[in-house]
Amino acid sequence: MIASHGKLASGFQSSLNILCGKGDEVEVIDAYVDDSDYTEKLNEFVAKIAEDEQGIIFTDIFGGSVNQKAVAAVVGSRKENVLIVSNTNLPLALTVILSAGDGPITLDDINEAIEESHPVVVPTALPSQEDEDDFF
Amino acid sequence: MIASHGKLASGFQSSLNILCGKGDEVEVIDAYVDDSDYTEKLNEFVAKIAEDEQGIIFTDIFGGSVNQKAVAAVVGSRKENVLIVSNTNLPLALTVILSAGDGPITLDDINEAIEESHPVVVPTALPSQEDEDDFF
C-alpha cells in the first residue's frame, strides 16, 4: 500500500503502471483530498495481511500525519509482519514491487533497496579546463 | 520544476499544496500520460532561468528516460545554474521549496536536504521480552 498527503500516492501508482505495469496491484490512499477518514482503510489493509505474508505501507514523509496514522494502525494490530517505509520515492517503490513476485520480502531486502534509491544530484557539468589539466 | 513518468509530478504538486501551499509555484511535467513530447517544456524551463537564478529539476528515477531528457536539456543549454535532482521524494521537495524564499539555493543546501530525506523503515515493534532482558 502507498499512503500520502494529496494525490502523491496515486501519482506513484500511475508511474508504476507506466514503468512496470504493476501499479494497480498496489492499494493507494490519497489523504486530505477530501474530508473522508482514511484510518479505516489503513486498518483494513493491516487486518487482511495473513501470518505468512509481508505487508508494506509506503508513506510520503517521516513524522507526517499519514505516517503517524500508519504507525498507529500497525502498532494497534500488534502484527510484526507489516513494515512501514517513509520518505518513499519511485526507485524504492519500483524495486520492492518488482521483487514482490520472488517470494517474501525481508527487512534486509528493503534496506538494500533503500541504499540504492537515495536521492542524488545528477552531474551535468562538462569537465572544466582545470579538470583536464589535472588529468595530464 | 518536477518531471516524472505518469502523474507522479502532479502528485508531488498536490501534496506540496496541502503541506505548505506552494505546490502551484512549481512547474510539473507528467510524462507519458499521452503522446505529447515534453522535451520542449524542459528546454523552455531551462531557457528562462536567468543568470542570477538557480533552477532545479526534480526527476523521478535516476537513469530513467525523463531524467535523461532533463540532463540533455541542461547539458545542451550549457547553463551551470540548473541542477537536476533524481530519485525525488516528498521531504526533499518540501525542504527545497520552503527554503526557496530564503535566497539562492546552493549545492550544499541540496546535499544537506538529501541527507535528511533518505527513505527509512519506521520502527513499529514494541520492545520484545529479549530486549528487556538485555536492558537489565
Describe it for me?
The structure is a homodimer of 136-residue chains. Chain A has six helices and five strands, in the order βαβαβαβααβα. The first copy, chain A, is an alpha/beta fold. Chain A has one domain (2-135): Rossmann fold (3-Layer(aba) Sandwich), CATH 3.40.50. In chain A, α2 packs parallel to α3 and α4 runs antiparallel to α5 (107-115). Chain A is globular, with a radius of gyration of 18 Å. The interface between A and B is large, with 56 and 56 residues. β4 of chain A pairs antiparallel with β5 (120-122) of chain B.
Short note summarizing the structure:
2 copies of one chain form a homodimer. Chain A is an alpha/beta fold.
Relevant terms:
homodimer, 136 residues, alpha/beta, Rossmann fold
Secondary structure topology:
The structure is a homodimer of 136-residue chains.
Chain A: E1 2-5, H1 8-20, E2 28-31, H2 39-47, E3 55-59, H3 65-77, E4 82-86, H4 90-99, H5 107-115, E5 120-122, H6 129-135
Helix pairs in contact in A: 1-4, 2-3, 4-5
